[in-house]
Specification:
Layout lengths: L12 E2 L2 E13 L5 E11 L3 E5 L6 H8 L7 E6 L2 E2 L5 H9 L1 E4 L11 H9 L5 H6 L4 H13 L15 H13 L5 E5 L7 H17 L4 E4 L3 H7 L2 E6 L2 E6 L6 H8 L35
Parallel strand pairs: 4-9, 4-10, 7-8, 8-9
Antiparallel strand pairs: 1-2, 2-3, 2-5, 5-6, 10-11
The structure holds adenosine-5'-triphosphate and magnesium ion.
Length: 296
Amino acid sequence: MARANAKAPPEGGVGGERERLRVAGLTKVYPTGKRALDGVDFVIATSGVTAVIGSSGAGKSTFIRCINRLVEPTSGRILLDGVDLVGLDRAGLRAARRRIGMIFQEFNLVERLTVMENVLAGRLGHVGLIDTLRRRFAPADVDAAFELLARVGLDGFHDRRADALSGGQRQRVGIARALIQRPDLLLVDEPTASLDPRTARQIMRLVRELATERATPAIVNLHDVALAREFADRIVAFSAGRIVFDDAPAALDAATLDRIYGGEDWSASAAADDDAPPAAPAVRGRVLGDDAGVAG
Ligand SMILES: Nc1ncnc2c1ncn2[C@@H]1O[C@H](COP(=O)(O)OP(=O)(O)OP(=O)(O)O)[C@@H](O)[C@H]1O
Ligand SMILES: [Mg+2]
């Protein structure tokens, strides 16, 4: 398997680009004794979309959640622009989390709030709902929210309640909410798993475009290998809590996938059901940080 637990590059840069995130020796053992992550080393630069794939239970969500400490790592280091998130106290962690945008499978919107309120909630970082409701929003934030809503295809939706939206529209709100804080890193856990295949591709295209436009590196957990291939610059595969593949999408061949998925069916794909123009050709070589975006 290619680059099994590939050695992390020396600190400071990735392929000539500045390093944004460095994970070193990350291990998570849940109280049940389950070793969900087992010494993960991983580095990303200041741009590019990295897809994380692997069987159910491989540790993908645990990995993403450890990065912003929604899950407390057992050991290891998580350096965001050189600052170790593992050692931070509450206030430090709150500040760090404001730099990390999170997009969830289940959208995690506040159902009875409007689209605009949900987006602006992202501006406040991780404060409680009551604080969100009491807070007066700065006009600049409201302007930024309108702009983002238009960008994610929700022009005119600001006054709709979240519970009156379709799944795809909800995820667009989730994306706007994550981006309004102008994060330095986007963490995305199965953004399309609750969506139909066609909407899934639209959402991945949007994530890809916005990550590129805003020069924000994104780590995206995906069940769907076809989506990972089409929309990521780099694919990292987990198996039993370890990285077993880390390379460009073009390097991910069928034999490798069979090994990653241990004979499970990995071919189920969102691609078949879409009438969008054909994807850009697979990117060659390791292009972490390459700005080559998907057209359109
Ligand atoms: N809170 C928890 N307590 C105990 N074990 C857990 C907990 N959360 C996850 N696990 C276990 O850790 C392992 C990794 O889980 P994780 O959710 O990270 O996998 P995943 O790759 O995201 O899977 P999926 O594709 O199903 O989302 C699994 O064996 C899972 O059962
Ligand atoms: Mg998961």
